[in-house]
Amino acid sequence: MLDGPTKDSPSRLAIDLRDALGLTQEELAAALGVDKRTLSRIEMREIELAGPMLAALELLSRISVADVPRTLEELARHHLAQEGGGEIPALLEKSSASLEKLLLQLPQSRREAMRGAPLGRLVASLWEAGRPWVYWATRARADLPTTSDLAKRHGIICRPLFTDRGEPQPYLFRLRPGDDVLLCYDEVPAAWFRIRRGDEPPVRIELDRPVSDLAGILVRLPPILSFIPQESELGRVLRQADYRLLDNSPPGRRTSGRFFSALRVEPSRRALPLGGPEPRARGSRFAITPFGARAPG
What we know:
Layout: H1 12-21, H2 25-32, H3 36-43, H4 51-62, H5 68-82, H6 91-103, H7 108-115, H8 119-127, E1 132-137, H9 144-153, E2 156-158, E3 180-185, E4 188-195, H10 214-220, E5 225-229, H11 233-240, E6 259-267, E7 288-290
Parallel strand pairs: 1-3
Antiparallel strand pairs: 1-7, 2-6, 3-4, 4-6, 5-6
C-alpha cells in the first residue's frame, strides 16, 4: 500500500494519482480499462477502491516517475484493443507535463533523483504536509474585502455543498484537512489558507430545493466544512453578501434548519507564487482546482 497519499482511505489512491498525472476521470479510466462512472463513484466514496483496480493503481504508484507516462499509454492501447479499438487519449503528453510541474516544486538537487523514484514517493514527498489548491472567488458574490475578512477573521470560505443541479460539488471529495488553498479574486492571488477540520453536520437540515442523497453525502464527505445557521449573526452577514445556502438556494424568510456551508480555513504560511497560478481552463466552472504554478517567462 502506498504510504503518503493513501493514509486517509484506499480510495484516495485514485484521487492522488489522478491529480499528480493531471488526467481527467475519463482518461485515467481508459488507462485502467474501467468506465468513467466507476472511477467517479470511487472518488466520491460511493464505493470503495478494491480488487484488480486497487492492484493496478498500487502497481502504477511503484513505477518510476520517468516511466509512468509511457506505461499509461501502453495500458490504454491494450484496453482499447481488447474492446475493439478506439482513439487513444493523449496520456503521454498530459501526464508528462503534469509530472514535470510537480518535479519543479522540488529543490533542483532532488529533481533528477526523483525521476527514477516511484511515483508514489514523489506524490508523498510533495503532499505529506497538504497539497495546494486554488479557490477562484469572483465578484458574483461578495467583494474582495468581505471575502478576505470572512476567511481571516471568521475562518470560512463560503461555498454551497451542492451545485445548482442538486449534485454535490465534486472537488469537495478531493480535499482534506491540512491542504493549502490559494484564494484568488477575479484571477488575482490574494492569500494562502490552510483547510482545518470542520464541524459535525447538523442533526436537522431543511432544504429548499431537491438534492442528491444528502445523508449519504454528509457521511462520505471529508471533515472540511463548517455549517453556519442562516439565522445566526454570521449567517446574516453571508445573506447580506448574497451567498447561497448549502443546497444552492438563495436565503429566504424561512430560516429554521437552513445552513450555509463553507470550507473551514486558517491563514497558511505559504508564500504567494511569483507568477500566480495557472488560469482555469477556458469555460471551467469549478470553483476549486489543483494548484499549478504558472511557468516563468
